[in-house]
Every structure is written in C-alpha cells, then in structure tokens.
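Checklist before submission:
- one chain only
- standard amino acids only
- sequence pasted in full

Submission:
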Amino acid sequence: MEGFEPDLAGFSGVLSVRRGDDVLGEWAMGLADRTAGAPNTPETRFGLASGTKTFTALTILSLAEEGLLALGTTARGILGPDLPSIADDVTVDHLLTHTSGIGDYLDEELDDLAPLSVPAQSLDSTGAYLPMLDGFPTKFPAGERFSYCNSGYVVLAVIAERVGGASFAELVARRVFMPAGMTESGFPRSDRLPPGTATGYLEDGRTNVFELPVVGSGDGGAHSTVRDLHRFWRALDAGVILSRQWRALATEPTVADTGDGRGHGRGIWTDDAHLVLSGSDHGVSAISRHDPATGITVTALANIAAPVLARTRAAMDAALRMAGTAR
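Returned file contents:
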C-alpha cells in the first residue's frame, strides 16, 4: 500500500490489509508475551472478545438452515425450566438481533468493563455460565428496541449445544472454522494458551487472566489470526458457511443505526457497505472489516485496549483508493 502509513502509536498487535491471496499491507507492533519478550507477528493468535458473537450467530443460522431450530423458536422451548427470568415470548431471532430485552449479566449500557460476578476459573464451559445469567429482570418487552446484550449470546450458545448435540466450541469449529479453513482459530483456556497466542494486558501491566472467563462461550473468548479472519470473510462471501439466502439474514441490517452510526444484522455489524466483526474487553481489541464488493479485508487485532475502529477505516479507505474503488 504505497504511500499509506498507519498510525500505530501506542499499538500492540497486528494491522493487516488483504485481498484474495495477496497481502496488500501488514504491520506488527509490540509484544505478544512481555515476560518472554516474544513479539507480535502476523501469525500471532489474538482474543476476539465480542467478535466471537459473529461465529455464534452463524452457528445458530447454520443449525436453522439445517432445520434443527427456527428463528421463531422460543428460548423457553429449548431452555425448559432454566433461566426462568427470560420471558416466554423471547425467540432465537430476538437474541440474534439484540432485541430480546432480557437482563444482561454484563450490561454495556451501564458499564462495559464491569468485573465478573463469579470467579473467572469457574466459567470453563457454556453450562457453567447459567448461574451467572440467572435472576436478571427483563429490561423491556421482546422486540421493542435494540439493546446490545451479552447474556443473549451466551443463551444462544446454550441453545446451540442443546439442539446441536455437542459443545459450543465443537459446533463453531464444525460449522464455521472448518468449512472456512480457519485452522488457527479456536477457544483456548486462558490459563493454557497455545504457542503463538498473545497474552492480553491491562493498563497497569497485569495480564487479563483474572478478568475474563477461563473458556469463552457465545459472547466472547474465540481466538484467531488476521489470516484466518480473511479466510472467514472469503468463505462467507462464497456461500461456504451458509447458503446465500441465509448469509443475507446475517448481513442485512435489522437496525440501521445502533447509536454509533453502524447497523447490525445478526451477529455482524454494517458500516457503510462494509461488514464488520468487532470486540473489545480487558486486554483485547479486535476489528475485522470486509468489503464484499472488492474482497478487501482490513483486520486490526491487539492484546491491549486500543482504538482500532478508526484505524481499520483509514486502512480500508487507503486500500479502496489503491484499488480505484474509493467511495
């Protein structure tokens, strides 16, 4: 990307611009492991935080396409007596579109970095989240409005397990990672990260191991690389993960503006003509921005809390100018 120099001041991670099989530009900064002095590289795996929700939504849509559930299936019909505070009319689609109105264990309208209410090490499976999700009163009637909800996506993971007959991580691997060729992606334990995985760091220099669940679920915890995320978007475009009809359900906005100018489909954000996977948490920042018209993907993954949205927008604008398709 001749003439483009990204602003990487204070950044620790990787910024990558890819199209097809070509790497148009790639920059790696900072350390993946400060104790060992291991640098971040384009091959480093990073946590995706809420970027995981994109994979959760596609797993649910894959199960629906197969006929194992429907978008109109009620959560209660799958949960039975579990989580009784969830209203009887809340559907799978309400959960996917953040319109369920259910109470949230991590309500980002109140505090997007609130500490976990249970020890991080106790959250080692999707089923282990149930006690933490219980007892939150309904915020508003299902379908009334958009309100970003972490609990809703963990509930979707519970539903996926009960319908799909396997652990959530296995279902995502079978229905998203494997079809897309995402060989570097998964749900590792935070206290046993595989080689080549970045450790997340807080502002005071501590790691984030006590701040996040030891094993992720439907609302966060997946790890990936810039290369795998480019593979993901290419597979989604090609109809490998979902048929084009079901892909449209994931990508077409159900709300045009969620409050920051971005729209939201089902697990995928929209920003102008771009599709976006995004997440942030303690020691994690992740944005992967894709332009279906050109096949260009810009991904910024960081192992610190860092502004990445503006960086990916700037890199995408530069890539589109280079391709002669700037809007």
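Reviewer check: The radius of gyration is 19 Å.
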